[in-house]
Amino acid sequence: MSIEGEVFRIADQEVNGYKLVITGNLLAEDAGSLRKFIENCLKSQFTQLYIDAKNIKEVDLTGINEIIHSSYTLKNAGKELTFVYRQNSEIEAWVEKTGLDKFMATAIISENS
Fold it and tell me: Reduced to 3 states, what is the DSSP secondary structure of residue 60?
């Protein structure tokens, strides 16, 4: 797994957002790295955060649970998290299985994007 953070402009908003772009896998052995990134986000001025997972190749339940944990952690700190993933992906299947989209913001990207 690789995680990179980047500041970006949110359309029609005065404040910038912060995006964590995850590539590769999001598996049990990667959960600690994601948690460290989220802990750093807690200390930042950003209130709008995105996890961009559209290029993840493989994910497991621990990886999805870490996304859920991240959402609760950020929400408790007064920050909003949106989870971005690709249509017809392994992540989409996990979102449907877990109902993750029922309790946190998600954005689905076309599989051709």
Answer: coil
Check residue 15 and give its pLDDT: 82
User: What's the count of helices (H) and strands (E) in the chain, helices before strands?
Assistant: 3, 5
Is residue 97 assigned to a domain? no
Alpha helices in the chain, H assignment, sequence order: 31-42, 61-76, 90-98
Q: Rounded to an integer, what is the distance from CA 68 to the centroid of its chain? A: 9
pLDDT digits (tens, 9 = 90+) for 32-54: 999 999 999 999 999 999 999 99
Q: Residue 8: inside a domain, yes or no? A: no
Q: 8: closest CA among 54, 38, 50?
A: 50
